[in-house]
């Protein structure tokens, strides 16, 4: 990716690239995958394209889009870490001007990676049910509810590798099971405690050596020791809260003399990712009367995104 940017936009541009890929992501060029990875997507043309340097007369964005499909990635220009410097529950938002340097990092910069990892660094907002510490009243919860999602409590994955184009007609089957992973038996959500809930992923990219195994391992790691449920909250309005941010309920007082948050919710201190967010305003003739923020969230995975 750096080489493509260097060719298309100059040598300094590749050095500014920020990538977000998992540590066990399959390599596009290695001793085991170069026959089905890097070389598959970068073989030069056999005609007049040789008159040009790489990418041999084609647009650099076309090369990038080819890799994006195989990496489940996206490419764009933005601020690193999926956030603007200074955005927090305490300090508020400090949006830098384009082309300036904030915190030693110029922006916007080219970003390439998988969306869950890109937004992993979004801010975390603490949603309290009572006034425990200074500032808690700013996001005091009006509502907190949990909905179980047993149908999403996956404990097994099968990865099917569809043969590349041109080979399918010669094979008596549509796809090949390339990989399988399950939750270990010591996980409370393992199949031995209930039944197998299987997730199936398929695609031609999984036919390449090593890709299916790595993908299955990564997906199954997302579910380890995680109770899949939907958390919904309402709190005092906060315009800086954004889709993709994390929220962490603070529900400590559940006994006599304190607030009566139901301890069976079992969400105190757990991090959730905002999937839907809505700000609601109510006005009367003299101005704003009420402003609240409501969100629907899912648990942050065992890998932190």
Describe the structure.
It contains six helices and 14 strands. By secondary structure, it is of the alpha+beta class. Helix content is 15%, strand content 29%. It folds into three domains: 120 residues, no CATH class; 98 residues, Elongation Factor Tu (Ef-tu), domain 3, CATH 2.40.30; 72 residues, no CATH class. It has a six-stranded mixed β-sheet, with no helix packed on it. Strands 1-5-2 form a three-stranded mixed β-sheet. The longest helix is centred in the last third of the chain and has 13 residues. About 11% of the residues have low confidence.
Keywords:
six-stranded mixed sheet, Elongation Factor Tu (Ef-tu), domain 3, alpha+beta, 14 strands, three-stranded mixed sheet, 6 helices, 305 residues
Structural class by sheet pairing and helices:
alpha+beta
- Biggest beta sheet attributes: 6 strands, mixed
Which percent range describes the beta-strand content?
25-35%
On the 0 to 100 scale, the average pLDDT is: 77
How many individual helices? Answer: 6
First and last CA, distance: 24 Å
User: Poorly predicted ranges (pLDDT <50, ≥5 residues)?
Assistant: 33-43, 48-52, 84-100
Can you tell me the overall shape? flat
Cα Rg: 24 Å
Question: Major sheet: order of its strands?
Answer: 6-12-13-14-11-7
* SSE order: HHEHHEEEEHEEEEEHEEEE
Count the E strands. 14
Q: How many domain modules?
A: 3
Helicity range of the residues? 10-25%
Structure summary:
The chain is an alpha+beta fold. 15% of the residues lie in helices and 29% in strands. The relative contact order is 0.14.
